[in-house]
Amino acid sequence: MKKLVVLTGAGMSAESGIPTFRGIDGLWENHRVEDVASPNGWKKDRELVMRFYNERRKKLLECEPNKGHYGLVELEKYFDVQIVTQNIDDLHERAGSKNILHLHGELRKSRSSVDENLVYDIDGWELKIGEKCEKGSQLRPHIVWFGESVPLFGDAIDICKKADVMVIIGTSMVVYPAASLINYAPAECPVYVINPASFEGPSAKVIHIKKGAVEGVPELIDILTKSINN
Ligand code: APR
Fold first, then answer.
1. Which residue has a Cα nearest atom 10 of ligand 1?
2. What residues are labeled active site?
3. Which end of the chain has fewer CB atoms < 10 Å from its terminal CB, N or C?
4. Cβ(62)–Cβ(78) under 8 Å?
5. Which one of 12, 20, 175 would you pick to mutate in the ligand 1 pocket, going by the greatest count of ligand atoms within 8 A of its CB?
6. Atom 9 in ligand 1: which residue has the minimum CA distance?
7. Distance separating alpha carbons of residues 64 and 18, to the nearest angstrom
8. How many Å apart are CA 74 and CA 102, to the nearest integer?
9. How far is the CA of 9 from the centre of ligand 1 (A)?
């Protein structure tokens, strides 16, 4: 089977009811990014950071995967599909996709604040001050914050290098290093983009489906399955 690598961002889950990041005001749900998603923010006000992610988690539990997520599962009938997502939600998992790499962490997990390898599932929506890892340190959200390194980036590069087909769904491709992953696709690898907005990429090899994920993924399935049959 050919390898289909799918890079996804916030737009993938927009139609499930999870807002994208880059609104016009530059704020995340009324907070400055540095306050809620950086090691400094955590140092300054842990309560605020915990509350922020608890609210996100609570909302996530009310959301469901959309037709775009399910479409990517269907593609596993025809391709060896590997998803590399910048999203911290678990909608790809809940839809049933098999291979998912979370570049920026996972909202429904916590981790030790002294050892990033100690990762735990969060039961329900709430992580509390006072909940500790087995080494006795406060648990923090299992999220890669601004200013932190991206531990799985090397794995993501290896995946992209092996792509026969690449698909990029719902990301503005402005946050690095994630945005550079497109450059690791082999030269002959076709790249499909599903995004209702214009896409600034290496335009020569990009086929742009200018739609949201819910409409765009079924269209992609159509194109890809026809190309297999021809
Ligand atoms: N379907 C597909 N794409 C959509 C849809 C939709 N229904 N709605 C919006 N989009 C597109 C927007 O046009 C935009 O290009 O999704 C993109 C969302 O971009 P961002 O909000 O910048 O999200 P993302 O690229 O995932 O951000 C990357 O930035 O803040 C950090 O860590 C955070 O992982 C995040 C990273």
1. 11
2. 104
3. C
4. no
5. 20
6. 11
7. 10
8. 20
9. 5
145 CB less than 6 Å from ligand 1?
A: no
**139 to 50, 109, 229: CA distances (angstroms):** 10, 10, 50
Contacts with 145 (C-beta within 8 Å, 6 or more apart), sequence order: 37, 38, 39, 41, 42
Whether residue 112 has its Cβ less than 6 Å from ligand 1? no
From ligand 1's centre to the CA of 129, what distance in Å?
A: 30
The DSSP secondary structure of 62-84, one letter per residue, reads T----HHHHHHHHGGGTSEEEEE
Sheet of 119-121, strand order = 119-121, 105-112, 139-143
212 lines ligand 1 (CB under 6 A): yes
**Neighbour count for residue 217 (Cβ, 10 Å):** 26
Please report, rounded to a whole number, the percentage of residues in the chain having pLDDT higher than 70. Answer: 95
Give alpha helix (H) positions in the chain.
11-14, 33-36, 39-44, 46-61, 67-74, 91-95, 153-161, 213-229
Distance 19 CA to ligand 1 centre (A): 9
User: Cα of 109 to ligand 1 centre, how many Å?
Assistant: 22
At 72, list the tokens. 């990517």
Give tens-digit pLDDT for 76-133: 999 999 999 999 999 999 999 999 999 999 999 999 999 999 999 999 999 999 999 9
Cβ atoms of residues 210 and 195 within 8 Å: yes
pTM over 0.90: yes
